[in-house]
Design goal:
single chain, about 425 residues, alpha+beta, five-stranded antiparallel sheet, five-stranded mixed sheet
Length: about 425
């Protein structure tokens, strides 16, 4: 079954004919081809929402020979411009498929132009592209997204993994309104459903994990975190028809499987109630662990009025309420972005990439290959140029789990960046 996303269309033949000419010219405009994926700078993927082009993607394998990439541009992502009595957004997507990041050969390529008409200037955009991808293949998709009204270009990469029929891309998470949810986390007591159009099994075997994992250790210290255990804290079975009646209200994650002979399946995460936002005093205190001494952190945690305590902490290091207000906005803005970008089996701010992102800010350049990311920082005040290398971990619950390759020489620049925060300056402020 093909999940179709319905979006608004213009009924006037005159307008359609007019824009068909524009579409024709755009489709045949010159488009430079990328030689290798590992030569592309993907740093714009990690810019803040204010500086970035927001976009969500979901991959769903329709059958043994076709896969669908579903595209969602949320409100305010695209620029809408006045056109007669309506507003129109114009998005052009060029796509190229590669066998791997080091390959020069393009497996497939094409483009699509999306016109979205609306009565508003901040409407969302939904669309999809179907690719002929066979069972057993693993390919890498490069999207070049052009907001034609804004004349800005952004690039995105997606891994299309069709190596087996139990991998997470054989499922889609739907919210209470039966809309696709582009992240895999749910909020307390919210109903959801899991869509798998071709799986004949009538029930899911669900492994539950309730452990709170420790936050990332400093980038210059050896990471002695024990290897993750696949042994669950509890197990239950649920009929597929009953998934929509589930309300998962315990912190942790839930791994849905139809075949327990493999570790593959679909994982639903349950974080804090307002995730990815940071809204209560405990959530405000916990990420300051990267800035505080043991004594300071324990004092914050044990304080009776935690909101007052965390406010005083920021005012003390800032020197004034106005500067503290700016520090808080920037620091917790990075925490929230880390939650959005880097969450896996734990919240994004706790991960290695989350730690580096919060303290140093968005990287200057990002280069990737099939299993690695290299973040480069240049021209930072008082901090030498740096490169952080992250390696993707084999994880049946998430393809977003990366571990930092730690080095002793990170100690000096890390403490320099922390010291900037503690002196009321925002490290790597753009």
């Amino acid at each position: 079954m093909h999940l179709k996303i319905i979006f608004s269309k213009i009924t006037s033949d005159l307008i359609l004919n007019f824009f068909s000419l524009i579409l024709f010219s755009l489709l045949f405009s010159a488009c430079g081809k990328i030689t290798k994926l590992n030569k592309i700078d993907f740093s714009d993927e990690y810019l803040s929402d204010l500086d970035n082009f927001q976009s969500d993607f979901a991959i769903f394998h329709l059958d043994s020979s076709k896969s669908e990439v579903i595209i969602h541009l949320p409100n305010n992502a695209a620029l809408f411009m006045k056109d007669s009595n309506l507003y129109v957004a114009r998005i052009k997507i060029d796509y190229e498929l590669f066998a791997n990041y080091n390959s020069k050969a393009i497996v497939d390529s094409g483009n699509k132009v999306i016109f979205k008409y609306s009565l508003n200037t901040n409407d969302e955009i939904n669309d999809s592209i179907i690719f002929p991808i066979n069972f057993g293949e693993k390919l890498y998709l490069l999207f070049t997204i052009r907001d034609l009204n804004r004349n800005k270009t952004f690039v995105r990469t997606l891994e299309i993994n069709k190596l087996n029929s139990f991998q997470r891309q054989n499922y889609l998470l739907l919210n209470e309104k039966k809309q696709i949810q582009f992240n895999n986390y749910i909020l307390n007591n919210n109903h959801f459903n899991i869509w798998s159009g071709k799986d004949s099994n009538s029930f899911y075997h669900v492994r539950c994990y309730f452990k709170k994992y420790p936050i990332a250790v400093m980038p210059f210290k050896q990471n002695n975190v024990p290897i993750f255990s696949f042994k669950p804290d509890s197990i239950f079975d649920v009929f597929k028809s009953d998934v929509s009646n589930l309300t998962l209200n315990r912190y942790g994650f839930y791994h849905f499987q139809t075949d327990t002979s493999t570790k593959d399946g679909f994982t639903v995460f349950q974080y804090n109630s307002d995730f990815p936002l940071i809204t209560n005093p405990i959530e405000l205190i916990e990420p300051t662990r990267y800035l505080t001494t043991n004594t300071e952190f324990n004092t914050l945690l044990s304080s009776i009025d935690k909101k007052e305590a965390i406010d005083k902490f920021w005012i003390n290091i800032a020197g004034s309420k106005d500067i503290a207000r700016d520090l808080i906005k920037k620091y917790y803005g990075r925490v929230q972005m880390a939650n959005i970008k880097f969450s896996s089996y734990m919240e994004g701010w706790k991960t290695d990439r989350g730690l580096i992102y919060i303290i140093f800010g968005p990287p200057s350049t990002v280069y990737k290959d099939d299993v690695n990311e290299n973040w480069n920082y240049t021209n930072q005040l008082y901090i030498p140029n740096l490169t952080f290398a992250f390696k993707r971990m084999a994880n049946p619950f998430s393809d977003n789990d990366y571990s930092l390759i730690r080095q002793a020489n990170f100690e000096y620049p890390f403490y320099m960046a922390v010291d900037q925060w503690r002196q009321g300056r925002i490290a790597n402020e753009k």
